[in-house]
Design a protein that fits this description.
Strands 1-3-2 form a 3-stranded antiparallel β-sheet, covered by helices on one side. Helix 8 (185-192) packs across helix 9. By secondary structure, it is mainly alpha-helical. It has helices spanning 38-41, 43-65, 70-77, 82-109, 116-133, 136-148, 155-183, 185-192, 196-219, 236-258, 269-286, 294-302, 308-349; strands spanning 2-3, 223-226, 229-232.
């Protein structure tokens, strides 16, 4: 998504207020009266829904684990074999590698050339920190601005980059959810207490939504307005690339938890991916950092046929592998980046 304004060259387009009036050079612009949109009036509904989802999930999680003793949990947490841990960290690396492609595709859409090492640093650290701390617009946005502004990117283009990355994530989620719900509708019906037709219907709706979006952006240049800014959406070619990258990221993240599940798990990976995506989407809706509590409650409910203490141990180990370790590495990388930047400035000053 480029910021589209009066410029016809979309690669160089800057952020322009879509509602700003056109005036002659030197003519003062009257301040428009603020308008309270219908969306703004009912924004509290989303907040209440998030709180309700989080509260219900925490209650369900508490009821599910109240029979698990600390000894059982410790045993389950430490039961992972070196092979499981090795595979888990491999999939973590693959997932975060795909995450760096989110920013790379966004920069391509914006027609901005940035060295991949800078893209990888900004993307990895912003996601690793925001996944753990939450508040992604603040945490991830601050880190991206800190790094990309040194390469000459304006705040507007960094904001556009962030929105494009979000589209990449949701395209991947939609495809993975749709395919897995259709392919494993029967097994998922027994795990999630739904019907086969409902699963197939939701899966088909998810795939049709993705196809409709791809068709919509392929017909002509499309743009959306976000809080007064007009953002141009990527075309079909970039959107297809986004979809592939998003699928890779989601599958790698799901595989990280899948390989940590108790030995002898009979649930197939395709089925588990659908459960993982559903848990992740509910976690996002709750606005809790990393979907904490909501994600675990959903996984525990869906995998109720497995030993509860072992599944909970796998979930805690997943948190360590996918969230805590990358978070620590990101903090070390950001500290090293700042030290090197200050040293370079001192060398240039002398």
């Amino acid at each position: 998504m480029n910021f589209a304004g009066q410029h016809k060259d979309l690669g160089r387009a800057e952020a322009i207020d879509a509602d700003a009036p056109t005036v002659a050079p030197g003519e003062p612009v009257a301040n428009p009266k603020p308008k309270r949109s219908m969306k703004g009036r009912y924004a509290w509904i989303g907040t209440i829904a998030s709180i309700v989802i989080f509260a219900v999930s925490v209650f369900v999680l508490w009821r599910l684990v109240e029979t698990v003793t600390w000894a059982e949990l410790h045993a389950a947490f430490t039961a992972a074999t070196p092979g499981q841990l090795g595979l888990a960290f491999l999939f973590v690396a693959v997932s975060y590698l795909f995450l760096t492609c989110y920013d790379a595709l966004a920069l391509r859409q914006l027609q901005i050339t940035v060295p991949y090492r800078t893209t990888a640093l900004a993307s990895f650290t912003s996601y690793a920190v925001s996944f753990t701390l939450g508040f992604p617009l603040l945490t991830a946005g601050t880190i991206r601005y800190w790094i990309y502004s040194g390469r000459g990117l304006s705040a507007a283009k960094i904001a556009a980059l962030t929105v494009i990355a979000g589209f990449t994530f949701w395209l991947g989620m939609g495809v993975v959810l749709g395919l897995s719900l259709i392919a494993e509708a029967g097994q998922l019906a027994g795990l999630t207490f739904t019907s086969i037709r409902l699963n197939q219907g939701v899966g088909l709706a998810a795939l049709l939504s993705v196809v409709a979006y791809l068709a919509w952006v392929s017909l002509k240049r499309r743009s959306v307005r976000v809080k007064g800014w007009r953002l141009e959406l990527p075309g079909a070619s970039v959107s297809l690339s986004q979809m592939v990258v998003g699928i890779g990221d989601v599958c790698a993240a799901a595989a990280t938890l899948y390989v940590l599940l108790p030995a002898g798990t009979s649930i197939g990976f395709t089925t588990f991916v659908a459960i993982y995506v559903l848990a992740a989407m509910l976690g996002i809706a709750s606005n809790a950092p990393g979907g904490l509590g909501v994600f675990e409650a959903t996984i525990l409910l869906a995998l109720s046929s497995l030993p509860r203490d072992q599944v909970l141990g796998s979930l805690l180990l997943f948190r360590v592998c996918y969230y805590l370790v990358p978070f620590v590495i990101a903090l070390l990388m950001l500290g090293g980046y700042e030290v090197l930047r200050r040293a370079r400035r001192r060398a240039e000053g002398t």
